Structure formats: structure tokens, C-alpha cells
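Students often ask why inverse folding is considered easier than folding. One informal answer: many sequences map to the same fold, so there is more than one right answer. In these notes we will look at a single instance of the problem. The structure comes first.
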């Protein structure tokens, strides 16, 4: 068994200003997405400008935070927030839903596409490889907060979490940081470096995240207020991830069957290929 590192969730206090590690993880994710996006936009014939990347990160940040918070409230704990509405504003305590955040980002990217004159999937194909670093950082924030721990386990790397009882548990936040962060990033980044059909990168994003999340949910403790939804093992996270898996497969099949030979330009790489669409 490993010892859980007692990390103060508060990273810095400046007078009345309190800065939490959880918030810093979000800033790290948005900063990494901005830097990676600018790097791709600066490539020859990328079809994107630095200003458009900046707009993308701004729109995406609003969509992720608002959608993530609303998604958690609606999907996971609506009665609690109806009883105490002011808790909705205390995002530094956690309580963010990836699936809600994704829906918020999709709406934001649709608005960005209208502003820039790009199609919805041109925008999401460019955005998808920029997201995993933020997802991994967010899971590190969950780990520092000592929340969203895994099930009781006797694996050598199990930990006793401060608010998780006296028994050692899977550090499922770290599993997700590895899968949804590092591995997910490497898959999407290297896949999107070569020209791909429109929608393919977005489809791979949905498929991989859905699979990673579905699998980790087997060792992650379900939310106490929800428990298991069916069969003694099905969680809300799996219910919300299943449509992502199906949607990702559908987009990949559609992308490659639509124009498997001629439409090979990825909007993340070249603007010249966009003209063919």
C-alpha cells in the first residue's frame, strides 16, 4: 500500500485571495491547449491564425466551465444544489462533469465555426488533440483534492484517502490522468499529424475517451448520491460514455466511407485540403 500524499488543496493565499490547485490545473489545461494550438496554426498552410486559436480557447474555456458545472449539477447531484443554490458557484471544491463540459464546448465550437466561417467538424478536428492535457491535469486536481477515489483494493499501489474511509482504494484519478491525459494526447496528436478525412479526428476523440472512461469506471467508486444505476455495476459515467463510443465509431466509419481516397486533408494540418471540401 502506498501513502497518500497530504497535499494542501490551497496552492497559494494572497491576503483574501485563495488560489486552489484545482483551479490551477484548469489554467494549465487551457494554457497547454493555447500553446499547442498556436504551434499548429503557425505551420505552413494550416488554415488557422493565432487570433482564431485565441478565440477557440476563450470560447472553449467558457463552454467547459459552464457546461462542466451544469452537467455535474444535472447529471450527478441536482437535489443537493436545489437545496443550496449558492454551492453552484463553489467550483474550487470540485463538482465538474466531463460530459457536461464536452456539451458546453461543442456549443461553443459551433458558435466559433459561425464566426470564422469554418464547418463544425473543421473546428472540432482542430480542437480535439489540444484537449487531453487539460483532462489529465484536471484528474491530478481531483487527486490533490482527495476526491473521486476508486474502489477498495489490495493492489500494492492502493491508497487510503482522507475522506474515503480507512481501507485502501484504487487511485483511480491517477489511472484517468494517465489514460485521459498522456496516452489520449499521444494517440490524438500523432494520429492528427497526418492528413485525415474530416470528422475522423473528432470520431477518434469520442471513441477513445468513451472507452477509457468506461473501463476506469469499473474500479472507480460511484458517486455516493447515485450509486450503481443497473446490474450492480453500471455507473452514470458509463451511461454517459456509451453514446460517445457509439458516436465515435459512427463518425470514423462515416469519415472514411464518405471519401476514403480523395478527402485526406486534416483541418489541423493544411488549409489546401479544406478547399476540396
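Output (designed amino acids):
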Amino acid at each position: 500500500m502506498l501513502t497518500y500524499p497530504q497535499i494542501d488543496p490551497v496552492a497559494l493565499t494572497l491576503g483574501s485571495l485563495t488560489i486552489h490547485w484545482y483551479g490551477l490545473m484548469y489554467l494549465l489545461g487551457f494554457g497547454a491547449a493555447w500553446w499547442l494550438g498556436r504551434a499548429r496554426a503557425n505551420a505552413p498552410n494550416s488554415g488557422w491564425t493565432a487570433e482564431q486559436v485565441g478565440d477557440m480557447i476563450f470560447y472553449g474555456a467558457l463552454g467547459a466551465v459552464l457546461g462542466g458545472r451544469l452537467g455535474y449539477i444535472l447529471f450527478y447531484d441536482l437535489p443537493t444544489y436545489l437545496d443550496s443554490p449558492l454551492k453552484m458557484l463553489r467550483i474550487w471544491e470540485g463538482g465538474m462533469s466531463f460530459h457536461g463540459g464536452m456539451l458546453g464546448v461543442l456549443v461553443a465550437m459551433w458558435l466559433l465555426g459561425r464566426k470564422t466561417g469554418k464547418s463544425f467538424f473543421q473546428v472540432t478536428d482542430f480542437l480535439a488533440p489540444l484537449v487531453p492535457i487539460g483532462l489529465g491535469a484536471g484528474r491530478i486536481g481531483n487527486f490533490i483534492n482527495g476526491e473521486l477515489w476508486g474502489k477498495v483494493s489490495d493492489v500494492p499501489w492502493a491508497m487510503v484517502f482522507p475522506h474515503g474511509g480507512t481501507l485502501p482504494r484504487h487511485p483511480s484519478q491517477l489511472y484517468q490522468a494517465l489514460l485521459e491525459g498522456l496516452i489520449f494526447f499521444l494517440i490524438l496528436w500523432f494520429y492528427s499529424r497526418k492528413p485525415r478525412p474530416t470528422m475522423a479526428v473528432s470520431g477518434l476523440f469520442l471513441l477513445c475517451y468513451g472507452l477509457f472512461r468506461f473501463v476506469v469506471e469499473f474500479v472507480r467508486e460511484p458517486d455516493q448520491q447515485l450509486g450503481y444505476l443497473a446490474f450492480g455495476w453500471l455507473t452514470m459515467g458509463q451511461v454517459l460514455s456509451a453514446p460517445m463510443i457509439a458516436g465515435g465509431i459512427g463518425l470514423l466509419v462515416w469519415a472514411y466511407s464518405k471519401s476514403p481516397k480523395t478527402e485526406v486533408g486534416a483541418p489541423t494540418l493544411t488549409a489546401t485540403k479544406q478547399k476540396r471540401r
